[in-house]
């Protein structure tokens, strides 16, 4: 059975990057954004999974993201030390950080790491090596590797915009998440810095 976390994300109704009513224009724009992400990573000496770059553009945000090369091979136990998981470009006032490229390192407390879902923290690191923000993250580690054919490729990276009912504030709030799916698990990083892990079935 497909992971409950993956299923919840795929059935949430939010569009993954790449969907557009204006296919040709969107394809050109996405191509430029992807090229800039690769260039930014090379300038920082970071190797990327270039086959799975996701993009999302709205009237208030532009986000481009992919996983760090080799992330799918990192065992869950390494989260205690911190693992470079993703490389992103963010341009959004709502994200609360300057527009730019960021390396994303994910860390979890050793007592939380398990088979199943658990909370973690993603740290966004700029081109100068400065930690500029921390973001709520949810990880799901599978009990055994899932065949790549189940998801279509060994690694899948998507970006979603979620509109979530914030019961504490009695209003709806938009957030953007990066979803990384690989054979050993799922990583969900909330780029707007609000912990909505309960919404994702945690």
Task: Provide an overview of this structure.
The chain has a 9-stranded antiparallel beta sheet, covered by helices on one side. The longest helix has 21 residues, at 23-43. The model is unreliable at 6-23 (pLDDT under 50). With 202 residues, the protein is mostly beta strands. It has helices spanning 4-10, 23-43; strands spanning 54-57, 62-67, 83-91, 100-107, 116-125, 131-141, 155-166, 171-182, 185-190. It contains 2 helices and 9 strands; from the N terminus they run ααβββββββββ.
Which helices and strands occur, and which strands form pairs?
Layout: H1 4-10, H2 23-43, E1 54-57, E2 62-67, E3 83-91, E4 100-107, E5 116-125, E6 131-141, E7 155-166, E8 171-182, E9 185-190
Antiparallel strand pairs: 1-2, 2-3, 3-4, 4-5, 5-6, 6-9, 7-8, 8-9
Q: Summarize model confidence as the mean pLDDT.
A: 80
- The shape, in one word, is globular
Helicity, in percent? 10-25%
Instruction: Please give the number of β-strands.
Output: 9
Largest sheet: 9 strands, antiparallel
Flag low-confidence runs: 6-23
Strand content: 35-45%
Distance between the termini: 18 Å
Secondary-structure element order, N to C: HHEEEEEEEEE
What order do the strands of the largest sheet run in, or round the barrel if closed?
1-2-3-4-5-6-9-8-7
Radius of gyration: 16 Å
Structural class: mainly beta
How many separate helices? 2
Characteristics:
single chain, 202 residues, mainly beta, 9-stranded antiparallel beta sheet, 2 helices, 9 strands
């Amino acid at each position: 059975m497909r992971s409950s976390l993956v299923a919840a994300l795929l059935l949430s109704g939010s569009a993954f990057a790449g969907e557009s009513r204006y296919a040709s224009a969107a394809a050109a724009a996405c191509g430029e954004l992807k090229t800039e992400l690769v260039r930014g990573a090379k300038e920082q000496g970071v190797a990327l999974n270039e086959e799975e770059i996701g993009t999302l553009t709205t009237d208030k945000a532009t986000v481009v993201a992919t996983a760090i090369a080799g992330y799918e091979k990192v065992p869950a136990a390494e989260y205690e030390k911190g693992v470079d998981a993703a490389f992103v470009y963010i341009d959004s006032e709502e994200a609360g950080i300057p527009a730019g490229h960021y390396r994303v390192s994910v860390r979890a407390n050793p007592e939380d790491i398990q088979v199943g879902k658990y909370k973690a923290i993603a740290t966004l690191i700029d081109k100068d090596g400065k930690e500029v923000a921390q973001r709520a993250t949810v990880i799901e580690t599978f009990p055994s590797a899932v065949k790549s054919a189940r998801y279509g490729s060994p690694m899948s990276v998507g970006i979603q915009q979620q509109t979530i009912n914030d019961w504490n504030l009695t209003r709806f709030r938009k957030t953007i998440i990066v979803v990384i799916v690989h054979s050993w698990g799922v990583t969900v990083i909330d780029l707007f810095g609000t912990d909505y892990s309960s919404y994702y079935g945690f």
